[in-house]
Amino acid sequence: MPTFPPLTTPFSSLITCNGLKGPRRRECPGRGHGLGHRFRCANPSFGNNSINPSHLIASTLPSSFTSGALPNIKIIEASPIPVEYRLIRHVIPRFLFIQTPAQAAVDSNRLALPFRDFPLADPTAEGKPRFDFVLHIGMAAPRKYYTMETCAHRDGYMARDEAGESLEGDTFWRDEYKAPEILRPGFDADDVWRRWKSELMGVDVRPSNDAGRYLCDFIYYTSLVEYWRRDPDMMAPVMFLHVPGRVEDLDIETGRKVALELIGAMVESAMRKKGGKDAVIHRH
Question: Vertex 137, ends 135 and 143: CA angle to 5°?
């Protein structure tokens, strides 16, 4: 029977964002979940957008939080991910999986370093999951709403990345792993969606099955396939959140709440799934 990897206590969640050309600085609101101060956060750009809200939002998340009956959730923010296909394919596996005990201690101190400084991984190496949950955050500038992406795609990455490369004709995942064209996270998407939406009255949040066939979709598939190739029955504890391109203080504060509530919904749903379909979890 498919199952999530064993959970640790407190739960650990990896947060990543993509898009990096060079940092700017700005003040970001830090209210909510008991935090009343303001955070100083970097502001990498993405594509044609000089300000990347996904990084601003990730930068304002607390190091840990809990809500109601949820256990303590530790949040680990990784360095922003450059918009380059091949770098992502070789580094994400080592972000997500511990290949040796010695590597675990070294890598834990490198997650906040520039992505390019993180050691490359053998794309075919094994290892055990490093985190209980993974949330990728990216920007979908044309959208005016927040989306949880419910699937990722193996093929069709024709657009060039910031290194000038595309993956047109690339067959690595198909040939090396025999991976399916579409992968989905291990969560019950409808259950996560209902829990998420119920905590965000007045905020436009939606499920989506189109992560864009660019770096967001690619990062998502890269993460999902790393769980799938180790065990097709392992439920990948990964989700992708797309945020609008707005960057005013209120937008970042709203995005912060949206991200935290999505993490909470992921944890609740996973706990329910491990405890059986009749398990009841109350946050209030």
Answer: 135
